[in-house]
Amino acid sequence: MIRLCEKRDEKDIYLIINDAAKAYQDVIPDDRYHDPYMSEEELADEIRDGVVFWGFEEDGELTGVMGIQDKGDVALIRHAYVRTSRRQGGVGTKLLKHLVGSTDKPILIGTWEAADWAISFYRKNGFGLVPSDKKRDLLLQYWNVPERQIETSVVLASPNWR
């Protein structure tokens, strides 16, 4: 079942993100990976900044989370993670389809250039890579990420983006 996450879910969101983000170890640049990948304070900051998390619940347990953030003319998919033990079961696809259906705005997604599995997942679900000459401007306009992350990331867009 897909449901809106609540304050009581923040610990589970934190645990899911940090469990799933272990896939980035030895894949993304060493200077961008740390453990935990996202601290509890960073998660709280993201929520205060308008990231609304949705979760997929099975047998009373959150197995995946995905955030959406309204940025005026676009929406961003943020922090899409599924517990390592539940990957490849359709949880991510269900969450993404739910969030895509929740807005009529174009959707942008930023991810690591080296995260081939993530790029493949989004492309399989209808998103396309934004040309590299537009990526930087989009990351600066809609995200708050350091220069090193801009250099090592890609942006994907829904078909209704420009």
UniProtKB/TrEMBL annotation:
CDD domains: NAT_SF (cd04301). It comes from Cohnella xylanilytica. Gene3D superfamilies: 3.40.630.30. PROSITE patterns: GNAT. Keywords: Transferase. InterPro entries: Acyl_CoA_acyltransferase, GNAT_dom. Residues 1-149 form the N-acetyltransferase domain. It comes from the Bacteria. One of its GO terms (molecular function) is acyltransferase activity, transferring groups other than amino-acyl groups. SUPFAM superfamilies: Acyl-CoA N-acyltransferases (Nat). This is GNAT family N-acetyltransferase.
